[in-house]
Amino acid sequence: MPAPRSYQQLTTGRKIVIKTMVEAGIPYRQIAAMERVSVATVHGVAHDNELIEMSPEIVAKTKAALSGRAYVLADRSISKAGEETRLDKMNSYQLTVMGSIMIDKARLMDGMSTENLALHTMSERLQSGSKDLENVKNMIIKRFQLSESDVLESIEKKTGAIKQEAVNDTKTVEDHAI
pTM higher than 0.90 for the full model? Predict the structure, then answer.
């Protein structure tokens, strides 16, 4: 049995959540139970003209407000988590996970990469691709009894653009990783 509901002014963000559920076809009673509001409140939000005519300025203002609130809550959470008494009670796994997450988030906020696997994967693919091309070249030479220079010229023409694209992709990945 849900706890009794109390009156509260809904934020624009919360109205958007309710409106989205209505538009997704979720029954009003179910939304009311999930959001701990009355069915009348859900109905009111569903027919709220403010949300229908939301300008980009209102959306931007709402996002900024929600983002600001998130930063405040994050700051409070980090402060609480970083208290010496709490840190002393954490095991090594918890400390490692918390430290890793904090580094990841700090790098994100500084506009730095948080995952450098893409660069390593791209490099491995390029190396593997070069070996595959060499094998194909040798097979063509042997099968069609062509000279190596003819095959190389043909391969270079057809794969030159692909190689350049791969190099450009690698540079783009490296630029984003820095």
Answer: no
**pLDDT tens column, 39-62:** 999 998 888 877 766 667 776 777
| Tokens (6 digits) for 2 | 């849900």
C-beta of residue 178 within 8 angstroms of C-beta of residue 123 = no
Q: What is the 3-state secondary structure (H, E, C) of the chain?
A: CCCCCCCCCCCHHHHHHHHHHHHCCCCHHHHHHHHCCCHHHHHHHHCCHHHHCCCHHHHHHHHHHHHHHHHHHHHHHHHHHCCHHHHHHCCHHHHHHHHHHHHHHHHHHCCCCCCCHHHHHHHHHHHHHHHHHHHHHHHHHHHHCCCHHHHHHHHHHHHHHHHHHHHHHHHHHHHHHC
Can you tell me the distance from the alpha carbon of 60 to that of 12, in angstroms, rounded to the nearest whole number?
A: 12
In contact, 12 and 57? CB cutoff 8 Å: no
Q: Supply angle C-alpha 9, 14, 19, rounded to 5.
A: 115
pLDDT tens digit string along 113-136? 766 655 556 666 666 666 777 777
pLDDT value for 175: 59
Angstrom distances, CA of residue 47 to CA of 5, 26, 152? 21, 15, 69
